[in-house]
Write a structure and sequence with these properties.
The chain has seven helices and no strands. The chain is mainly alpha-helical. The termini are far apart.
Length: 140
């Protein structure tokens, strides 16, 4: 019984030491940058674009379920392909360059998507705008 209590105490001490090391001054900057990058990723708008992409694709497909299915599959395929090639780009250009370029592209695409989503722009050419939005979502 004594050894079990002793083991539990050692585990608690090790856990406390790990927590102190992680939040200590040595890793504080890295931990803060990592957390901020995750917050910025959530605020980048990709979740909203992906969530509403099927509605946007349905608008472009004019209710045709076959075209809608193809557009959604292309979106998923592009997501998978970009995940595989991201490592190559990171090695070639570096993490900071990729981060800045990605942020710039996201801002530009969101601005263009916002402008094209206005009713006045949609009504000016209702056949072309949905397909431009689909292409922009793929580029996003």
């Amino acid at each position: 019984m004594y050894s079990l209590v002793e083991k539990e105490y050692k585990i608690q001490q090790a856990s406390k030491e790990q927590k102190e090391n992680l939040c200590g001054p040595r890793y504080r900057k890295r931990l803060t940058i990592g957390c901020l990058l995750q917050v910025l990723q959530q605020l980048s708008g990709i979740n909203a674009v992906i969530f509403y992409s099927t509605i946007i694709f349905d608008d472009a497909a004019n209710g045709d379920s076959l075209i809608l299915g193809i557009l959604v599959q292309i979106s998923g395929l592009l997501t998978i392909v970009t995940c595989f090639i991201s490592g190559v780009f990171t090695k070639c250009f570096g993490r900071k360059t990729i981060l800045w370029f990605g942020d710039l592209v996201c801002v530009v695409m969101l601005i263009i998507l916002g402008i094209l989503s206005l009713d006045s722009v949609k009504n000016s050419s209702p056949d072309v705008i949905p397909w431009v939005v689909v292409i922009l979502i793929y580029a996003y």
